[in-house]
Give the backbone structure.
Amino acid sequence: MNADQLGDEVTDQLNGRFTDRLADVVAGVSDPEIDVGLRDLGVLRSVSLTDGRIRVHLTPTRISCPAVGEIARRVRSALAEAAPGYGIEIVWERGAWQPAAVTVAGRDALSRGGYRVAGTASSCPYCGSEDVEQAGRFGGAVCKVPYDCRGCGSTFDVIGTAGCTAMLPTPEPVRGGSR
Amino acid sequence: MPHIPTDSDVYEVFAQSGHGTALNHVGSIVSPRPDAAWHLAKETYGRRDDLVKLWVVRRTDMIVSSADDRGLLAAKTRMPYRQPGFPTARRRDRSASPPAVAAPREGRDSGLTERRDDAREPGLTDLWLALADDLFVLGNRLGEHIVDYIDLEEALAVGSIGQEALAHAGTILVLCGFDQPAADARFFDRAQAQWQVSRVVERLTDWPSLVAGGLVIAAAVAVLAEQTAEAAQTAGAEQTAGAEPGAAWLPAITAIRDEQLVHLDHWRRWARALAAWPETRTEFARAYAEVTERAGDMFGARPQSPAQGVPAGAAPAGPALAVTLHERLAALVGENGGPGSRLPDGPGTRTWGVGGSALADSLSRGRTVRDEYAPGVFS
Amino acid sequence: MPMATAAGHRCYELWDPMPDEVREGARRFAAVQALNELVGVLQYVEWLDRAPSHTRRQMLMAKIQDEVGHGHVVARVAEDLGMPRERILLDYLEGRTKIHNIFHYSFATWEEVGPGLLLTNSAAITQFQSLAKGVYLPYARALRKVEREESFHYQHALDLTHEILTHGDAEQRRRVQEGFELWLPRILAYLGPPDTDTLHTNRMWQVGLKPDGNDEVRQAWLNKIIPVVRKLGLHVDPALVRQAPSGEWEFEMPDWAQVKKVIANGGPSSQRRLDWVRRALDRNAPYRRALQGVA
């Protein structure tokens, strides 16, 4: 290994550590509506650094999430404070969010706010009762399905699958089609 | 009284995730066939956890309690519940869907065939841009119906579907390479003559027509998304030229498809309800016939000029593709169980400047604030 | 789970035996809020198809849907306490219930929407934060969630106002200022008449459903919103609102007789709101029956 290569490696490591720190900064940005960080919510996909430019990949919980503008603003301002002088680019990966990407800490934070994540056991986030029922197919926001707890009378939302409890199958034409 | 639900496509899923735990109801899924239901359940609920047991039961094979049974089922310790005047039943079970009505298929008009005199064949992006126009108008129309107070749950459905229609329209433009100002200019500053909406749009006036229009537009978007996803998968990871659909489109296009299928399902429920109910049957049959006979142009977009932001050199989609898409649309629309569809046998083409007052009003109101805004606000 | 509020009141869950006064009070609070969420959005619906960009239109639509969603949430709470949801709008049409004073007005310009939304939202948040300390826990939990979601719309209002103030022309900035001066007194009135010596005789206060007095909530709101408004660059006319050396906010007292008249459907848009609801319910009656009949 020559000196140049060694230098590159050190730079890479430093860069890596710096990028990790930037990712933590973005992870610490909280969702505008619920008290949960972007990484815990599964919204933060990756942070990279090339030529003095920070690129943040995010994914909205739903394509039509109205909070994308506010989230981007918060990420920009947090990064500008943590790493002044760097360019910031935010890339929205539409359609990439998965309920399974919510961390354990994220599930706890959501639960404290009165939310459950799709795919987890459907029990009341307040009292834990499993005597819950869906209160409609769509909620007040595109990412939420409303539920009622019959145990304690609370209302809560399940995040992640508005409109249905599972993906519908892909259409299979009765006749025609190219498949 | 316990009852047997009627929605035969719905399956309830029960799972046990560890040996120390009980078998729990984890959710429900919608599937046309039992074997597909099993796989979907495994995929949906078994993705993260190793399952010990998985039960998938067709909802119509179950005997379930209804709200009235709560008194019988309630533990004796919950005495306040039994006090006179204490609220008991509420919210009827909406999961059961109305019975399908078998309606004879009425005679179909032959497709409106117009001579294609444009310089090139339309590409997939042309088809998407035209559907984005439809989605934008539909989204706006639905916005006005959130506060129609049909009922609270319907308000939320209309709001969700409307928001998603607008967002899908915007996402399509992003995929096609538009930035925010260009997308706004396209949605707000084009004269009606430069729009290529489907003829369905001019009919988006009353509620039954919105149900029918929502249904065919959701079906068309789902069909085109499916086609695009297949094309993108075939193209593989290699980048395709310009903004023509490639692997980068996949996540968004798949999400759009899945969301539109949910919309389609919602409109189908409505179509079945309006077609089955004596008071609305005739009105809906007329609206549905008028909307479907206009829907032959769903995939009939003409090439759009590069000046409007469409990348030049888009791969031609070809007339064969329009036929394929149209057939898939016919299959999807025909499944709704409503009154006779008048969807033409073959695909027709779109014309510039249609959309009637539904589009004209939407455009003129959309410009009232925008036209007098200081130019700096949007830059 | 707290079984008593800070003021020492006992708290109640749905199935707990509770005094009729608490049950009826909570039901009324939730039902009135549901009505106001449902009819209150109409002033925003009127601007939906004039919102001047794709993003703004989406934001506005999301706001409208969210408010209806809040209506859905509190209507379910009221329903559990014996209030059928269908009655919420019927009671309004038949004059048995009233909407808040602020919902009897419309926005005259788009520039007015920003400050109107900002003031309304922040006041509602303060109000909900207070009511969330109440003794009926399912309603309290619903309010905490609603309040968090409202704060998202508050951000939107802030952004909209800021956008016009920084990029708009002089005429637009003037309209924002006017909008602020128009809506401030309305919101001061929305938070209710001064308590003076009436609070302690208020039954809802006594049973713990109304934890704070109107003045307390109003002062808390002014403490929060006036610095924000100043930071945005708006001028706060001392004739409208000013801070005394004690830190207490003083303001021009609303004309309560006039406010009462507005609430009794005597405001500029009162009739329009009633007509909208009546027409929508009538027009859609067959479709509603179809949905219910075959479901």
